[in-house]
């Protein structure tokens, strides 16, 4: 039963036709804000944000363009991008890992049978930094992981000055990371991913 037929005392409602552009075509607008998994077609946009965010700080990127394409082909479900009006403004890329702690091989490998999600990189576009987008995106990403049956925990490595940021996101420091990149040393951090069955029943995942 339609809403109008259920309310006989209301006058009929005459809906206006959708507005059209001057050329007669219906105008389509992009969503103001959207979170979605990334694909290989997003690799260049990802790399541009990452390069600007990291090269000025450490002189190198966690992932190069071919590595970004590699992970977005193998495991796009372990990525998450934040788009505003169709433009990528922040992203996370991850892959699966099958050992307790990260090793040098974790930088380039995806282990499909693994239960740990290795978060390779989180980056925010320079024009929208200092707005809390990094922590919001991480929260959304961790919620997303709870919808994936294989994910039991999230691992990442970061420079010591970033430890407080990730602690606020719920990560715990595991100590020095085995992985080194040039002269850089890292702290390894972990976040438990819980509530798989409950989240799948109640979130539509």
UniProtKB/TrEMBL annotation:
Keyword Acyltransferase (UniProt): yes
Lineage: superkingdom: Eukaryota
Entry keywords, A to Z: Acyltransferase, Biological rhythms, Cytoplasm, Melatonin biosynthesis, Phosphoprotein, Transferase
Signal peptide: none
EC number of the protein: 2.3.1.87
Location in the cell: Cytoplasm
EC class (word): transferase
Main location: cytoplasm
PROSITE patterns in the cross-refs: GNAT (PS51186)
One Pfam family linked to the record: Acetyltransf_1
Protein name: Serotonin N-acetyltransferase
Source species of the chain: Peucedramus taeniatus (Olive warbler)
